[in-house]
Amino acid sequence: MLIIGLTGSIGMGKSTVAARLRTLGIAVCDADAEVHKLYEGAAVAPIEAAFPGTTAGGRVDRQKLAQVLIGKPDHFKRLEAIVHPLVLEAERSFLRNAAADGAAMAVLEIPLLLETGGEARVDVVIVCSAPADAQRARVLERPGMTAEKLDQLLARQMPDAEKRRKADFVVDTGGTHAETDQQVDRIVESLQDRPGTAFAAFWS
Questions:
Q1: pTM higher than 0.85
Q2: In the chain, fewer beta carbons within 10 Å around the N or the C end?
Q3: Using an 8 Å Cβ cutoff, are 124 and 170 in contact?
Q4: 27 three-state secondary structure
Q5: 94-146 pLDDT, tens per residue?
Q6: pLDDT at 173 over 80
Q7: Neighbour count for residue 123 (Cβ, 10 Å)
Q8: Strand pairing of 105-109 and 169-172?
Q9: Distance between CA atoms of 60 and 64, rounded to whole angstroms?
Q10: Which residues are bridge partners to 4 per DSSP?
């Protein structure tokens, strides 16, 4: 089974590319979605212990947690030390299920794939990219997003140009959805017969 790492900075069209991959019959594990589940389950108690007052009603209050994290890189590291191992286990379960189902390919959608050295655990890296002005416009349309929050998020992410250099494939999402889909289709076609080694090495 070939493991594809799908990544890109915030607002770069990862969800659009992931949707196309699913349409093509390829299973996708969304790391952000797994974090949302953890914030209503296994991560609640350890986060409350590390950051008292950031949970309520058996779930993490994302706004309160964000306020605690602002401008404090050491707090981000503490949070990541709690959440990352739990996400990794969710990804392992997803990949084992995909392999058991006989899947030829499976996708891990991970925003900070390259920042965390995750490229070592996948066979192929696809980076989603778009012009900076399009990225900024997309993100600032999101509820609750501000220029300050966006700048803080971007400061934690590898520059887009560096991600593109590290990619095996780049999908330019600056055009229409149809143009993005065509790029994804061509990449998937080119990967049809590529063998994968990452599953046996890191996940099985």
A1: yes
A2: C
A3: no
A4: strand
A5: 999 999 999 999 999 999 999 999 999 999 999 999 999 999 999 999 998 89
A6: yes
A7: 20
A8: unpaired
A9: 8
A10: 107, 124
> Which amino acid does the sequence have at 127?
V
Which of 162-177 are b and which e, b meaning 16 or more Cβ less than 10 Å from the residue's Cβ? Answer: ebeeebbbbbbbeeee
pLDDT digits (tens, 9 = 90+) for 155-169: 888 999 999 999 999
Alpha-carbon gap, residue 29 to 15, rounded angstroms: 11
Query: CATH number for the 33-102 domain, one of 3.30.10.20, 3.40.50.970, 1.20.120.10, 3.40.50.300?
Result: 3.40.50.300
CB 171 within 8 A of CB 125: no
165: which 2 tokens?
Answer: 């250099």
Does the fold of domain 33-102 match that of domain 1-26+104-194?
A: yes
Question: Options 3.30.360.10, 3.40.50.300, 3.40.630.30, 3.30.565.10; which CATH number does 1-26+104-194 get?
Answer: 3.40.50.300
Whole-angstrom Cα distance, residue 5 to residue 91?
Answer: 11
Give me the residue spans of the domains in the chain.
1-26+104-194, 33-102
